[in-house]
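ENTRY TYPE: paired fold submission
RECORD: A
CONTENT: sequence, then C-alpha cells
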Amino acid sequence: MQREKEILKVSKQGIFINLTLVVFKAIIGFLSNSIAIILDAVNNLSDAVSSLITMIGTKLAGKKPDKKHPYGYGRIEYITSTIIGIIIFIAGFTSLRESLDKILNPVEVDYQIPSLIIIGVAVIVKFFFGKYVKNKGEVLNSSNLVASGTDAYMDSILSFSTLVAAMIYMCFHTSLEGYLGVILSIFILKSAYDILKDTLNSILGERADVSLTRDIKKKITQFEEVEGVYDLVLHNYGPTEMMGSAHIQVRDDMTAKELHALTKKIQLRMYKEFGIIFTIGVYASNTDKKEYREIKKKIQSLASKHKEILQTHGFYVDEEARIISIDVIFDFEAKNPSAIKSEIESTLKKEYPMYQFYITIDIDYSE
C-alpha cells in the first residue's frame, strides 16, 4: 500500500508539472512561430498522459487476487509501461517528421528573451524532476515511473537543444532547429525502444537476476542438512509479486518429519528475506557406497567431455529397481542435447550393464 501511495503521489506531481509546462510552452511556441517549442509542449502533454496511465496501471495492479486471477494483477504495470513506451515512440516519430519538414521548409521565427528564460526554467525543472521520478521508480521497483522519468529527462534535453538553437539563431541568424530536432528525435526513439524491450522481456519472462539467484542459493545452503540447491526457478507476477521453486539435495535417510521441518524453515526464511513464496522439492543423496561414488564420478567425467553440458545433479541409485537417475543441464546453445544424452547412456550401459540409466535433460533457469 505504501508503494502504491508513493507511485500515485509522484504521478500526480508529474501531471501538474507537465500540464503547467504545456500551457507556457504552447503560448511561447505560437507567439514565436517555433515548431520546436510547440513540439516541446506536445512532449510535455504526452508526459502528463504517461503519468495518468501510470496512476491507472498502479491502481489496477494493486487489486487483490481473485478466483480468476489467483496470482494478482501485478503484471498490469508491465502493460502500462508498454503503453508509455508506445506514446514515447509516437512522440519521437512525430518530432522526427516535423524536424525534417523544418529542414526542408524553414520558416521565420521570432524569439524573445522572456520566452527563452521561461524555456530555460522549464529545462531545469524537467531535468531534475525526470531524475527524481526515475530514482523513485528504481527505489519502488516501478517500471512505469522509470519509463516516465526517462521520458522527462529526454524532454529536458530536447528543451535545452531548443534553447541552444534559439540563441544561435539570435546571434548568427542561422536556424538549427530542424537539425537538432532530428538528432533528439533519434534519442527519443532509442529511449522508447529500450523501455519497450525491457517491459516486453518482463511480460515474456526473462532470466532472473544473477545476484538474486546466487543470494537465494547461498541462504538455502546455510542450512546444514542441505547438500546442494538446484533447479531454482523464479516466476514474476509483477514488480512486487514473485514465486519460486527449487530442489534441495539431502541425505536419503532423513525422515518425512525432518524433511517437513526443513522445507518449512527454508520457505519461511525465503519469504522473510526476499518476499518470495517458495516451493521446495527434494533430491535424495545416497553416495555413501564406494560403488555409487565411482559411478557418479564416471558420469561427471563423461559430461565434462561435452562443453554443452553445464552441470549434473540429482544423482540417485534405486537399489531395488537397479535404476540410476541424474539430471543434466545443457547450455541453451547446445545443438543436439538428445544425441549427447544417448551417447552418455550408451557408454554407461556398456560399463554398468546391471543398471538402467535415466538421464533427464534439464534447463539452465539460473546461474
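RECORD: B
CONTENT: sequence, then C-alpha cells
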Amino acid sequence: MSTIQTGKVCINALTSICENEDHTKNHQHTRLPPVVKSLVANWSANDCFEHISPVALPSNTVIIDIIHQARSILFPGYFSSVKLHQNNLEYFIGQETTDLYDKLTEQIMMAIRHDCKRMLQPCTNCDERSHRLALAFIETLPQITATLATDIRAALAGDPATQSPDEVIFCYPGLLAISIYRIAHELYLLKVPIIPRIMTEYAHSLTGIDIHPGATIGQGFFIDHGTGVVIGETTVIGRDVRLYQGVTLGALSLPRDAGIKMRNKKRHPTIEDNVIIYANTTILGGETVIGEGSIIGGNIWLTESVQAGTKVMMKRPELIFT
C-alpha cells in the first residue's frame, strides 16, 4: 500500500476520498419539488398556456422536412441526393410525391385535431379531411412550379449580378422565402391550421424575410437581397413587382384589442402590377394602393395611395462635411 507525503499531511492513496465527493453534500435537489408544483399550478391557470393532452401537435421537424421534400419536387435535380435523368425522373417524382402526401396527411390530421381541442369543437372527421386536403395541395404543385418559374425569370431580368437560374435557385434568399411562401399559401387557402405559419416562419428564420402565408402575391415576384422585408397577411401584390431589402408592407397603428377587432379585415396595402419599391421603404394601411408602374424610392414612409405611373422620391439630403 503506497502513501503520498504532502508537508505534514499523509494521504493513503487507496483509501483517500476525492474532494469532489463532497459535491453530493451540497446539492439542492430537495428544493426543486416546490418549483415544479408552482409550474404545474401556473400551467393550470387561465393566464398561462400549455398543451397537456393525448392529442399530438404537428411536428416542426416533420413540417420542415415536408418543405425540403416539396422543394425537391418543385426543383427536380437541385435538392435531391439522387442523380436524375429522363429515365428515372417520373419514378423519382412519383415516389417523392407519394411520400409527401403521406407525411402531409399525418401533419394536417394533427393540426386539425389540435384546433378542435383548442376551440372545443365536436368531431370534424379529421381523417377524411386530412387526406382530402393533402391531395388538394398535391394537385397545386404543377401550378406552383409554373409560378416559381416566373419568379426565377424575374430575378434573372432584374438582377445583373446573377449568372444563371442555377445561382438564383441555389443561392438567393428571396427565392427561398418566396418558394416556401407559395407552398404555405396553398395550404392557407385550403384552411389548413397552423402548418402554413410554421412554414413561413421557418423561412423567416433562415432568410430574414417575413411573408405571411395569407398574403396574395402575383407571378414574377422578385425580392432583391431581402433581409428585413415584411409582408403582412392581407397584403395584395400584383404581377412583376420588385422589392428591395428592408421594405415593410404593414398595417397602421393598431389598438390593443386588434387581435379580435381587426381579424379578417384588410390591414395591409395593395401593390399593383409592375411596381418597384426600393430599400427601407415602409408602406402602411389596408386602404393604401400603390398604382401600376409606380416607382417608390428608398427610405420612404407612405400611408396614402399613389396614382399609377408615379415616382415617389426623397428630396436629396444635405451633406455636411466638417
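NOTES ON RECORD B: The chain has two domains: 55-209, 215-314. The longest helix spans residues 86-119.
STATUS: closed
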